[in-house]
Amino acid sequence: MISIVRRIKGRYRSGKDSIGEGFFAPCLNHCCLYKRAVGYFSSAALRNWAGAFPRFVGTSDVTIKLIISPQLSNTDLETLQRATTPQSKLELLQLKSDQLLELAIELSSPNGSVRAQSELLAWLVASERLEIRFAFPVHVNDAGIFHLKTGVFVFPDGDKIAFTGSANETDGGHRRNYESLHCYRSWDERDLHRIDDCDSEFDEAWNNL
User: Fold this and answer.
1) I need a labelling partner for 198 at 20 to 30 A (CA). Which of 80, 90, 162, 164 fits?
2) β-pair partners for 35
3) Rounded CA gap, 12 and 14, in Å?
4) Distance between CA atoms of 42 and 77, rounded to whole angstroms?
5) What does the alpha-carbon distance between residue 155 and residue 80 come to, in Å, rounded to a whole number?
6) In sequence order, what E strands does 155-204 have?
7) First vs last Cα of the chain: how many Å apart?
8) What distances in angstroms separate CA 106 from CA 2, 46, 117, 177, 198, one per listed residue?
């Protein structure tokens, strides 16, 4: 039987595919590591992460690393500040599993609330399931924003999927905008060097090399 992960296609395009439901959601539901470099991030992207929250809550063996530009909404910025304040962090870590799952169910509903996505983002950061680093380009004197758009999913059985494309880690990028992604899968030998390139590019940025 072919696993869900191995059903991932080599390309996704809005209008023809659902990028959020067809690509991001199944990969997040099964990965043990997600490395993502992207220009823009919004907690609204967690709507496509909602189905993976039972795993996030039930195990600490899932890690998400984001490198993003520091251009966040005021709400997301306040959420991140709260998640790293000692007293608030302690309170977030005391949330029970059923409370977190209720928030995930609320978030996945058609009218998922901003409160749910903020609480879940705060918990992910406080519990260290999610680590965020901000990128400040210095490749030229008048550098603009960090606008790299690549990612790598690593799965417990050793499979990897790397991808590049136009989508940001936002609700628009996952669902509403017209976007395109090219995916590289480790079970296809022709893709291995592209996966290595994406992996190395992310690690260099993550380690500030």
Assistant:
1) 80
2) 65, 152
3) 7
4) 10
5) 27
6) 160-165, 180-185
7) 42
8) 31, 12, 9, 23, 34
Tell me: the pLDDT tens digits for 30-49?
999 999 998 888 888 888 88
In this structure, the dihedral spanned by the alpha carbons of residues 203, 205, 207 and 209, taken in order and rounded to 10 degrees, is 110
Instruction: Convert the pLDDT of each residue in 99-134 to its tens digit.
Output: 999 998 998 887 778 899 999 999 999 999 999 999
Report the alpha-carbon distance of residue 3 to residue 131 in Å, rounded. Answer: 28
Is 48 in contact with 168 (CB distance < 8 Å)?
Answer: no
Structure pTM? 0.90
Q: Which residue has the tokens 């220009």?
A: 39
Instruction: Please tell me the distance from the alpha carbon of residue 170 to that of residue 71, in angstroms, as a whole number.
Output: 12
Q: Which strand ranges, in their side-by-side order, compose the sheet holding 160-165?
A: 11-13, 180-185, 160-165, 150-154, 33-38, 63-68, 130-134
Choose among 201, 184, 198, 176: nearest CA to 8.
184
Alpha carbon of residue 30 to chain centroid = 13
- C-beta of residue 114 within 8 angstroms of C-beta of residue 108: no
Q: Which helix (H) or strand (E) holds 12?
A: strand 11-13
